[in-house]
UniProtKB/TrEMBL annotation:
<dbReference type="InterPro" id="IPR011989">
    <property type="entry name" value="ARM-like"/>
</dbReference>
<dbReference type="InterPro" id="IPR013083">
    <property type="entry name" value="Znf_RING/FYVE/PHD"/>
</dbReference>
<dbReference type="InterPro" id="IPR016024">
    <property type="entry name" value="ARM-type_fold"/>
</dbReference>
<keyword id="KW-0833">Ubl conjugation pathway</keyword>
<keyword id="KW-0808">Transferase</keyword>
<dbReference type="GO" id="GO:0016567">
    <property type="term" value="P:protein ubiquitination"/>
</dbReference>
<dbReference type="InterPro" id="IPR003613">
    <property type="entry name" value="Ubox_domain"/>
</dbReference>
<dbReference type="Pfam" id="PF04564">
    <property type="entry name" value="U-box"/>
</dbReference>
<dbReference type="InterPro" id="IPR045210">
    <property type="entry name" value="RING-Ubox_PUB"/>
</dbReference>
<protein>
    <recommendedName>
        <fullName>RING-type E3 ubiquitin transferase</fullName>
        <ecNumber>2.3.2.27</ecNumber>
    </recommendedName>
</protein>
<comment type="pathway">
    <text>Protein modification; protein ubiquitination.</text>
</comment>
<feature type="domain" description="U-box">
    <location>
        <begin position="4"/>
        <end position="79"/>
    </location>
</feature>
<keyword id="KW-0677">Repeat</keyword>
<feature type="repeat" description="ARM">
    <location>
        <begin position="129"/>
        <end position="171"/>
    </location>
</feature>
<dbReference type="GO" id="GO:0061630">
    <property type="term" value="F:ubiquitin protein ligase activity"/>
</dbReference>
<dbReference type="InterPro" id="IPR000225">
    <property type="entry name" value="Armadillo"/>
</dbReference>
<dbReference type="Pfam" id="PF25598">
    <property type="entry name" value="ARM_PUB"/>
</dbReference>
Length: 365
């Protein structure tokens, strides 16, 4: 089965399909378990470039690639291969005023199929001027054409070299507009597109400063379906790793919505809260929300490992800056939960649980 997936979906170390793709500081993506084993063995170089790494290398989740892998259907690749027209021919149809909607949709489907599994084809497409043609379709009033174009654009953004170029050609504005499209699927893909663009550090500030980008994502959190909420939270997590975007996100009313979603079981919402708790405005909003400590305590008890990790980080930020937060945390039994977490298999959970215990006991003295 793995042979039918694009090579970009496979870990360069294990050559298996990645279940938890993360980006190393060298810019290359690996499966978390594989690169962690490499680092645990004492290596401090990138397995691909052999360039030196920091003493404690960060592993940044590649949410966009994970989403593409999870939504990929390898069965479609088992169909007989049919020759497709040259990319330039397909692009010409896309930009032709006389081309029918069906012909444009067919072009986008063909381009998406070849670009998803072929990095060489993605490079050829960008060099052939495909981006401007696809962006015109993203700006279409037809929801199906818009969604197909966004999916193709997402494929092109898989290559980091393309991300800055896509932004330069106006991808952010059209993608943000698509966040308000009629189609839920279109809105979800648009959020994933922003996540992909935000992998490049300079794009995070650009996206955050763009009018209505963060506000639209928060709107999807409030009113979207489960898929939309997950993709919007993932995009906010990517964008808010840039500190300047955290206050903007708080001002758009994200904190109470994220807490409510976290309470319903979406751990990705807790990850965003962990970042927002690093700014004063975020902490103040969390303390104003009635039941925030109860929700975070529930995540500690029942959440997935990543949700638990970020709930601990959120609580550490809150309790470091507020005696009231410490009192509420102790009242919700957080100290007792942390005592059970110091024996957890996850090293980060153990370390953060121990840190929170120290804070709560120190304030209790």
């Amino acid at each position: 089965m793995a042979a039918s997936y694009p090579d970009d979906f496979k870990c360069p170390i294990s050559l298996e399909i990645m279940s938890d793709p993360v980006i190393l500081s060298s810019g290359h993506t690996f499966d978390r378990s594989s690169i962690q084993r490499w680092l645990d063995a004492g290596h401090r170089t990138c397995p691909i470039t052999q360039l030196p790494l920091p003493e404690n290398p960060s592993l940044i989740p590649n949410h966009a690639l994970r989403s593409l892998i999870s939504n990929f259907n390898p069965v479609s690749l088992s169909k007989p291969f049919l020759p497709h027209p040259p990319p330039q021919t397909l692009i010409s149809i896309l930009i032709s005023p006389s081309a029918s909607l069906d012909s444009k949709l067919d072009c986008l489907n063909q381009l998406a199929r070849v670009s998803k599994r072929d990095s060489v084809m993605r490079r050829k497409l960008t060099e052939s001027g495909a981006v401007s043609a696809v962006l015109k379709c993203v700006g279409s009033d037809d929801p199906t054409l818009q969604e197909k174009a966004l999916s193709l654009l997402l494929n092109l953004s898989l290559d980091d070299d393309n991300k800055v170029g896509l932004v330069a050609e106006g991808a952010i504005g059209l993608t943000v507009a698509a966040l308000q499209a009629r189609s839920p699927d279109c809105r979800a893909v648009a959020a994933t597109m922003l996540t992909s663009l935000a992998v490049v550090e300079v794009n995070k500030a650009t996206i955050g400063a763009y009018p209505y980008a963060i506000r639209s994502l928060v709107g999807i959190l409030r009113y979207g379906n489960n898929r939309e909420q997950k993709e919007a939270a993932t995009a906010l997590y990517a964008i808010c790793s840039y500190p300047g975007n955290r206050v903007r996100t708080v001002e758009c009313g994200a904190v109470p919505i994220l807490l409510e979603i976290a309470n319903s079981g979406l751990d990705r919402a807790v990850e965003v809260l962990g970042l927002l708790a690093k700014c004063r405005e975020g902490r103040e909003e969390m303390q104003r929300f009635h039941g925030s400590m109860e929700i975070l305590g529930r995540v500690l008890r029942n959440g997935a490992p990543r949700g638990v990790q970020y709930a601990l980080l959120t609580l550490i930020s809150l309790c470091c800056h507020s005696e009231r937060a410490c009192v509420e945390a102790r009242r919700e039994g957080v100290l007792g939960i942390c005592m059970t977490l110091i024996d957890d298999d996850n090293e980060k959970i153990r370390a953060n649980a121990a840190k929170l215990i120290h804070i709560l006991r120190g304030n209790n003295a």
